[in-house]
Specification:
The structure is a single chain. About 45% of the residues lie in helices and about 30% in strands. α1 packs parallel to α2. A 5-stranded mixed β-sheet has the order 1-2-3-4-5, sandwiched between helices. It starts with a strand and ends with a helix. It has helices spanning about 20-40, 55-70, 80-90, 105-110, and strands at about 1-10, 10-20, 40-55, 75-80, 100. The radius of gyration is 13 Å and the shape is globular. The longest helix is centred in the first third of the chain and has 17 residues, at about 20-40. Belongs to the anti-sigma-factor antagonist family. It holds the Pfam family STAS.
């Protein structure tokens, strides 16, 4: 799993790629929490290049969400494959996370919120 960070205006975008699984969960959690801690308070997690996510990967997302929520920030997801979208629905995480088709639309949404 690889994580790249970029900023678009006042929004942080974390681009994930590969597989978000147990072997990578601790590193991914630390990197996402560092973005949350030092970032803008608005975070898009881009899944366009993620091929698979397991329960450990889901726990990474929940940890990042709790971290950003504690700072009164907002976090959304973008670019989910049909399989990952189905997993979000199965685990009901789609009730917690707003999901956008692409990170640019997600960033525009977050930039417009205060």
């Amino acid at each position: 799993m690889l994580l790249k960070h970029r900023t678009q205006g006042n929004v942080d975008i974390a681009e994930l790629s590969g597989r978000l699984v147990m072997a990578d969960a601790a590193k991914a959690r630390a990197e996402l929490l560092a973005i949350v801690e030092k970032g803008t308070g608005r975070l898009v997690v881009d899944f366009r290049d993620v091929s698979f996510i397991d329960s450990s990967g889901l726990s990474v997302l929940i940890a990042a969400f709790k971290g950003i929520e504690a700072r009164a920030g907002k976090m959304v997801l973008a670019g989910l494959s049909p399989e990952i979208q189905a997993l979000m629905e199965l685990t009901r995480l789609n009730e917690i996370f707003l999901v956008f088709a692409d990170p640019e639309g997600a960033a525009r949404y977050l930039a417009s919120t205060e």
